[in-house]
Amino acid sequence: MSESNETSGRHADVDIAGVDTVVAEAAAPERDIAVKVGDDLVEVKNLTMRFGGLLALDDISFTIKRGEILGLIGPNGAGKTTCFNAMTGVYKPTSGQVLLEGRVLNGVKQHKITRAGLARTFQNIRLFGEMTALENVVVGLDARHKTSVIGALLRLPRHTREEKSAIERGMALLEFVGIADQAATLSRHLPYGSQRRLEIARALATDPKVLCLDEPAAGFNPAEKEELMQLIRTIRDDGYTVLLIEHDMKLVMGVTDRIVVLEFGKKIADNVPSVIREDPKVISAYLGEPEDDFA
Amino acid sequence: MSMVDGPTPLHTAKADQAAEDREAVGTPPGSSAAVRRKGWFGGLGEKWQELPRQKQWAVLIIVVVLAYLLPVINPPLISTEPGNDFPLACQTMAVWALVAVGLNVVIGYAGLLDLGYIAFFAVGSYVAAMLTSPDSTFLKIPYLWTIPVAMAVTMFFGVLLGVPTLRLRGDYLAIVTLGFGEIVRILATIIPAMKGQVGFQNLGHPPGLDAHGVPIFANSNGTPWYWLTLTILIIVLLLAGNLERSRVGRNWIAIREDEDAAETMGVPTFKYKVWAFAIGAGIGGMSGALMSGQVGFVNNQKFDVVTSVLFVAAVVLGGAGNKVGAILGGALVAYIPLRFTAIADYKYLIFGLALCLIMIFRSHGLLAARQQLLAYGRHAYNEVKARTDAKSAKAKAAPGKEASL
Amino acid sequence: MIPTLLTVLPALSTDDNSWITFDIPSLMQNFWSATFDGLTFGSIYALVALGYTLVYGVLNLINFAHSEVFIMGCYGVWFTLSFLGFGPSAPNLSLGSIVVNLLLALIVAVCASALTAFVLERLAYKPLRKRNAPRLVFLITAIGASFTIQYTIFLVRGPVPEQALTMFKPTPIFDVFGTIVDSQQLLIVIAAVIMMVVTERFISKSRTGRGIRAVAQDPDTATLMGVNKEKIIITTFVIGGILAGAAALFYVMKIPSGVQYNGGFILGIKAFAAAVLGGIGNVRGALLGGLLLGLIGNYGQILLGNSQWTDVVAFVVLVLVLLLRPEGILGTSLGRSRA
User: Fold this and answer.
1) Binary contact (A128, B258; C-beta < 8 A)
2) Is the ipTM of this complex over 0.90?
3) What is the spatial distance between Cα A163 and Cα C77, in angstroms, rounded to a whole number?
4) What residue ranges are annotated as transmembrane (chain C) (predicted)?
């Protein structure tokens, strides 16, 4: 099916983010989500994280609604990435719960959390350097594959089927994030911007219900950031829910539907961008002089 | 881990896409094209890739036929005679190649440093010995059956050792396997049923007598043993290739490159590490059974841990992660002391030094080649290549306009 | 390991049960002598373990070649003492001249080991660090370097152990529960503990020691803070070498016929096991792990009735520790070891 999309996508008009709608459709997820659009997809309940004497997260609670782009912001050391790691199973929370579609994720192994539908990217890019871009994405797709070692060894029909569909879907995803022409390049040889996009494509490949992006625009110039915002919007329009950690206020304000603000491990605000923008607590804690950031 | 140097300058996609499929043995049609670095034999590799499919198959068939005929031709210069019987040397080389292919799964694919591989080789040898030698009190089975049995038993040991240690950081594995290699030898000495230095004599061999009523698979007759080992080697290569171009191979390489990221991408890292370890162990056990069958005698003296390091040298010499490299490395490590008997006593020094020098100056080994990780990637890559070519042609026609892309 | 073998190979235990015995009376009878001897061996393990622990703490590398750093020290001791006229039987010298001779041997051993460690770091590891090589490459280089040194010695000195040298005749010092503690045991344990305390002080108090801890915690930040990372790394290797040299003197004292090209190999594995047992990267852990492993090995050997079992026991301990408490008894961080 995506064979034709792939070829037609090549000739279609590509917008500024390198995204085109036909391709987006081919890359779109095929999955069932238990909750309806606008309902709570992820619930973070009283999440506390303690490292020795340091209280990194103090009783954090928030929800991610299906279909939204939620921003998670806060000054350096506020606990954003810690929160992320506690959600995706890298850390075991000291107390509190993370629920995905009502299912508790505490103590679930990382790869199972990913299969349950919570995928992430890394702040410092962590691609598989010796693999091509396409292979990187296919590793993500493998999260949904069921071929066993025996199946691969003997090239059983399921293996053949999955391998073929993986190529098609992998290429579609690369096309979707705009780096299909670099599919055969080793990921460590990719330019920086393409590496960031590849990380997103690889995370999308696991067919997540929630896509968690950890500072995806780090190191980008304003034009690239603009393209990235466009891409994130397209991802959401495609039916994904997005959790975005970001430093750049302009990007966060421009793209998110709602923002949670952390400071010193505590949640200090949770509202739509226009309110957050005016919230004096947020301004004093994080933004300093509002004119500086929002002029 | 990756077995290559640090950051390299950016390549253009186009430059990298010159590469093509370069499987040396039995590549099924439709295998992927991929990017590779140039090794010392890089020119050779490129020529290989430019060949059309049919010619590749023709070359492969010739190579395989030549490989089978090697002990019969006994080419001068290459021959190890008069110092060592050449067909027997061929058998040794084939066994070492098989060992290297097995260890390559562990080190080259999954990035796990196993320094006690000799232990699996030893377990395989003892299985063959204890199930066929008249010196053993166990039940007896035909020799050929010991090959799969040895594989199963060593896989079991691989899992037994792997499950506790593979949960840990990779470098602990190195020391635990090193210890395990030594322990198996000590246990062979201590446990009376394993008969220490006395060992087991007159191991079984495959059936068949020649015209003079002498067994075809006699201890001193290297050629049939070599053919047997070579056949098994080719089968193992085909199966290893299947694994490589599948989810399994991709997951292994992902673990090797960045274990945490792999886990985050939904790879059950522990499970796949245990699989790599067990598969490696199984191939090691099989090689042990083949070697001891030909030698006809097993005791505790042959399973030094130092030999394990030679196994690692074999994998690294050829280029970790590369099956063809592993075969080359294994055969070379076995061949050099047999051919150049004057330096045979220094083999440990030579290969120890070679290990250091390769790692310091050329960590991707003699045959630098990347794994093929997609079973049906060729079509997609070709399309990308065509597209980039078209793009660059367009860019040439209108310089400057697409420079920003 | 052992129970599993029993279940896997039932025939082995039925057809001849003698390969594994639990000789508890013998252990009770020899308990204290096994304890003192175990502590003596443990002290030697601990000194070597420190070398592993320090390098691991700073570089996150199992320096497989550390066993060869140690064995070079043994050769240093052996050559010095042979040159000074020591032989298989105890020398007929005054206490003063024995002390002088041993000090000379110690200095040579320390120099030999430290120099080996220095050269190893510069030739083998530094080039890898420069190009930011992956961990596996470091490990393979380490094992290759270990091999190279081992078989260079083999080439020069051959496969047989060097002639045994007795440094002095151990004299009984005091009596504990009817078991004599001799001067040799006492000297080794006390000297080793003193050296470890000094090392620990050095790492926690001195400027260089702070640098070592800083690099262990976070090399990049340490560099930003003005710590010369390269200098710290080489210093760490040299300290490990010095301690290995001292261990070499005690080792030759305890096992006079143990100087052999591959003599460091098993001891190296045990010392590493000791470091892991105590908590790798942790200076006190190395001492604790060394002593414990010495004791466990000795008890195990008597209980199971064959000296080969010490190695098996040490290995089983290593696997059990990794399985049950991979961070070791005292935890792992060199950077955080303050005291």
Assistant:
1) yes
2) no
3) 63
4) 38-62, 69-86, 98-124, 136-156, 176-198, 232-253, 259-280, 287-306, 312-334
Q: Is the pTM of this model over 0.80?
A: yes
pLDDT digits (tens, 9 = 90+) for C116-162: 999 999 999 999 988 888 888 888 899 899 989 999 999 888 888 88
Q: A188: which chain B residues are within 8 Å (Cβ-Cβ)?
A: 7-8
Average pLDDT, integer, range A36-59:
85
Residues from chain A that touch B49, judged by Cβ atoms under 8 A, are none
End-to-end CA distance of chain B: 31
Is residue B21 domain-resident?
Answer: no
* Contact residues for C148 (Cβ-Cβ < 8 A; gap 6+): B349, B352, B353, B355, B356
Architecture of domain C22-336: Orthogonal Bundle (1.10)
Per the CB < 8 A criterion, the answer to whether B338 and B344 are in contact is yes
Q: Is residue B362 part of a domain?
A: yes
Percentages helix, strand, coil for chain C (3-state, rounded to 5) are 75, 5, 25
pLDDT tens digit sequence for C7-29: 444 444 334 455 667 777 777 77
Burial class (CB in 10 A: 0-12, 13-18, 19+), B77: exposed
B2·A129 Cβ contact <8 A: yes
pLDDT, residue B281, reads: 95
Helices (H), B74-142: 86-104, 117-132
Q: Which of A15-29, B54-68, B127-141, C201-215 has the lowest mean pLDDT?
A: A15-29
Q: Please tell me the total count of domains within chain B.
A: 1
Residue C20 Cα, gap to closest chain B Cα (Å):
8
User: Are the beta carbons of A267 and A60 closer than 8 angstroms?
Assistant: yes
B56 pLDDT more than 70: yes
Chain C residues within 8 A of B3 when measuring between CB atoms: 134, 136-137
- Please report, for the domain that includes residue B328, its CATH number: 1.10.3470
Asked, for residue B248, whether it belongs to a domain, the answer is yes
Residue extents of the structural domains in chain C: 22-336
* Nearest CB to B179; choose among C62, C127, C315: C315
Segments forming the whole domain that contains residue B176: 75-373
Residue B394 inside a domain? The answer is no
